[in-house]
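Ticket #4471: structure output looks truncated?

Reporter: J.K.
Steps to reproduce: submitted the chain below (249 residues) through the standard prediction queue, then opened the result file.
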Amino acid sequence: MLFVSYQFPPVGGAGVQRPAKFAKFLREFGWDVSVLMAANPSVPVLDESLLADLPDDLVIEKARTWEPGYAVKRGLGQSTSGGTSSRGGWKRTLLAPVRRAMRFAVGIVLQPDPQLLWLPNAYRSGLALLRRLRHDVIFATSPPYTNLILGTLLSRRTGLPLVVDFRDEWDISGQYLENSQRDWFSRMIQRRMQRWVLRHANAIVATTQASTSAVAARAAEAGSRAESLCIYNGFDPGDFLGEAVGNGQ
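Returned output as attached by the reporter:
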């Protein structure tokens, strides 16, 4: 299985736990896993401890992204409000319209998310890996939703079946994640992107029954025949070995 995940250990944070545990436990179900991830991810936090979860012989293919560092992206998206009495306040006030215009322009271009700047290199690296090693399926997890675009492109190029994993629903989280755009044009573009992904998916996975039903409905609207399945977020018992458990349990 080729596992497409821009965020993967040593990247930290809540969104990495599910991909890391998939890579760890899929082997118990008869799957060998290779991972396609970002070589220089633009993320807020790293957690080297997560590397201990990964099999020693896990195949990892890394592709560089053209994104700027996370501090730059965060600065572009920060609020520019503030009183003129504070140091530099008048500069922030003057620059606020420019910053808003820059953020809007960048957001319009980088659909569905800034990780689109990873896609060209990741596509080339993914094809190289698929030519080098035999694979049976592509599994793309999201967000970021560029993962799903990338997985679909690789699937269509190679003919391998595609499984798409929605850790969050695109319709909801796309409005609040990094680079989120709430204008009608962005919503239209992302709806079309989602329909394209779902139409070419062979199977759909989500984390709750409600999300599974919602994504399945979107897939049906797109003319997809993909099977939908709920795989809940769980826990790894190995993470709790040696921990004291209260109440005598």
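Triage note (M.O.): checked the attachment and the full token line is present. The longest strand covers residues 34-38.
Status: closed, working as intended.
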